[in-house]
Amino acid sequence: MGKLKRLMLLLVGLMLLVSPVGCSTNQDKAPEKPTVVNVSYATRPINVPSIAALEKKTFEEEFAQEGITIKWVELEGPATTEALAAKSIDIATSLNYVTGLVTKSNGNDIKFISKFSSFPKAIGLVAGTESGISELADLKGKKIALQKNTMLHEMLLKALAKANLKAEDVEIESLASPEAANAVMQKQVDAAIIPDPLLTSALASKKVTLITTAEGLIPGETFIAARTEFVQKYPEVVKKFLELHQQTLTWVSANQEEALNLAAKFNKLDIKIVQALYPKYDFGIKMDESTITNLKQSAELLKQNQMIKDEVDTTALVNNLVDSRYLPQ
Known about the structure:
alpha/beta, 10 strands, 45% helix
């Protein structure tokens, strides 16, 4: 019994040496942090918060204190979702909701972690002055330029439905917004759907007329999106990013004149144009039930028009896409 007792005491001693009492547990460890966070931005239409963030360098300075480098990458449209899929960016600060829905339905695992902007009044369907288009019903048989698989595409679908027309009743020319604006002014297409400041510039040329804005047709929203894997691995980083974004919005509100001057300089626009356009934009970050409802309605419309596959459950799609847990309280 003596040997057995000594052996048992030895085993107990060894267990104490490796037990949680004598060392740190996983719960005691500091949260894992990335060394670099790659963030995309767009300066159009008039993304004042993004421009302010770039100029003030608050994100770089605050994250540097934690040993994290913030790298900004300018991207728009499909290039943004491609970069998210390729993991070359972690967070996209201005992703339009239609692009997000389509890319999510195609297997690109992303989350909407915050609203970024809403600007339906700053999107317009314009027609060439010699196109013969003066109302939505006149679009039948016409060639319309816009960037496909974006909110501009959804706006056209809604506008056509309002005039009892279908997508098959028009010819869609898929072009990036600057090219679409140029195409309609050069009479290469009959009409185009474009955002500001391109919209204001096109109207000022007198070569096009405004048929309708997006107001009453679509919410015209963009979101801050992130790779799901990144969100799950670095939740504290995501929370801090959104806190800094809210701080940037607060700074813009308190220093509007300086912020708009920065935007004018950055986008090489006359300050009077920026001052006129800015009231068309809402940069609130809140995501509520109306956000969910709008996204579900959009997803169903996209599904009906074969932009989202028939087998996709749009309700589940949206519920999995929107994640408001990281918003500042």
